[in-house]
Amino acid sequence: MLIGLMSPLFAQESSKIEPWKEDIQILLNLPDEDIDGIMGRNTFNALKKFAEKHDLTDVVLRGDFEDIGSTGFRQYMMKYHQYWMRELKNHQIIDDALNKEYLRQAEETLYSFEIAIQNAQLEVDRLTRAKSRAKRKARENNELDVWDEEKKEADRLITALSKAVHSAEEEAEKWMIERLRAKRLAEEEEQLARLDERKVEAAVLTQELEDVITLAKREVDRLVEENRKLEEKITTHQDTESIARQLREELAITRSQLDSLGVQRDSLAQRLAAIESGAAKLEPKKKKKWYKRILFFWK
After folding, report:
1. Which pLDDT score, from 0 to 100, does residue 283 have?
2. Considering the chain, what is the average pLDDT of its residues?
3. 212-240 mean pLDDT
């Protein structure tokens, strides 16, 4: 039945292997022999395992490969491959940023570069001392030619070691940048989680505000109906003074209820404005909310 519903929505898959198919298989960490661009059982099982791990299963991935078949799975991937490509890449970035082994290797590499720099500096110092000793020995033994050759060799070694030190410093700086980038990705993920919490809270406040507005509308309708009934009573009843007194009491009660609703509305509006100001720091400015136009109407 699922294949019958999906078949009118997709065209027949062409014989040409599209690049995104192999990209999805690579992102799913399939073996090299299974990266063939064919959306078959192995790809289905790997995608199902990824979806269950990250709570992304849908009606297709909650079943088995036999339930949908190879044709149905190919049509499903043709429609949703962009979504799965995005999810696979996003989780790969997050996993890389949270991979402590990756950070540990980076720190070990930085430490090895520091040790190499220190050893190179020690070698430079040793060669400098050797150069001084050679110069003193040449001056003492009048072996100027030998001293000149040793001096040239020492200069050459110092230049080579200086280049090596410079290269090691550049590599250490690259690893430091990678480490900072990984920390920044983790902080951005935490900020996105906080923003989602703010959005949920804003949705709750919006629902409360809608309930208040609905209650106010019902109260207005009730007052209109009461007013109509009172007008009918006034026309048929002789004791107009008693009816007017009753009307004033009911209007006073209604006014107090409307004042209470107004206080609730103002409180909800203040809380909603505080949430909007906090969320505005984390996301671009958007259009004016619809419930603000309703608040303007009530004002």
Report:
1. 60
2. 80
3. 78
Higher pLDDT, 126 or 238: 126
Instruction: Please write the tens of the pLDDT for every residue from 138-184.
Output: 778 877 788 878 888 888 888 988 888 888 888 888 888 888 888 88
Find the largest Cα–Cα distance for the chain: 142
Residues 6+ apart with CB under 8 A from 68: 2, 3, 44, 60, 76
Burial of 256 (0-12, 13-18, 19+ CB in 10 A): exposed
Tokens 């799913």, residue? Answer: 28
Phi, psi of 207 (to 5 degrees): -65, -40
Six-digit token pair at 21?
């198919």
Q: Taking Cα atoms as reference points, which of 259, 263, 261, 279 lies closest to residue 203?
A: 279
**Whole-angstrom Cα distance, residue 125 to residue 133?**
12
Task: Check: CB of residue 104 under 8 Å from CB of residue 46.
Answer: no
Contact predicate 120/165, CB 8 Å: yes
More confident residue, 49 or 234: 49
Contact 79, 8 (CB under 8 A): no
As a whole-number percent, the residues of the chain with pLDDT over 90 amount to: 7
**Residue 66, number of CB atoms within 10 A of its CB:** 8
List the structure tokens of 43: 């790809």
Residues 6+ apart with CB under 8 A from 65: 41, 44, 45, 73
Written in H, E and C, the secondary structure of 172-222 is HHHHHHHHHHHHHHHHHHHHHHHHHHHHHHHHHHHHHHHHHHHHHHHHHHH
Q: For tokens 């002789």, what's the residue? A: 238
Q: How far apart are CA 78 and CA 82, in angstroms?
A: 9
How far apart (Å, rounded) are the C-alpha atoms in residues 253 and 256?
5
Residue 153, amino acid? E
Could you tell me if 46 and 56 are in contact, meaning their C-beta atoms sit under 8 angstroms apart?
A: no
